[in-house]
Design goal:
alpha/beta; 3 strands; GTP binding; nucleotide-binding; three-stranded parallel β-sheet
């Protein structure tokens, strides 16, 4: 990230996309946001974070990961956009007619 940022002539900020249900998205995402705050304190940081849903759960520790990473998200971003995992699934099913959405479908929808 530092190399890319150094090559920018007019760096305005960062867009960070992550999910906080799993250990990597919550732990590494929190660490990344913290480092960006330390190294690029005055640059804008926008976080787009997917939160797990009890209806669409893959792990029993998702609620813990979410709660523990929320503090870091709020502390180190200027704007936090919270995305509901179940709502994203519903959009894929109802609006896009995707019967069994995959993570690729969900990621593409969020990135648009």
């Amino acid at each position: 990230i530092r190399k890319l940022a150094d090559n920018c002539t007019g760096l305005q900020g960062f867009l960070v996309f992550n999910a906080v249900g799993g250990g990597t998205g919550s732990g590494l995402g929190s660490l990344l946001l913290e480092r960006l705050s330390v190294d690029y304190g005055k640059k804008s940081k926008l976080g787009f974070t997917v939160y797990p849903s009890p209806q669409v759960s893959t792990s029993v520790v998702e609620p813990y990961n979410s709660v523990l990473s929320t503090h870091s998200l709020l502390e180190h971003t200027d704007v936090a956009v919270l995305l509901d995992n179940e709502a994203i699934y519903d959009i894929c099913r109802r609006s896009l007619d995707i019967e069994r959405p995959t993570y690729t479908n969900l990621n593409r929808l969020v990135s648009q």
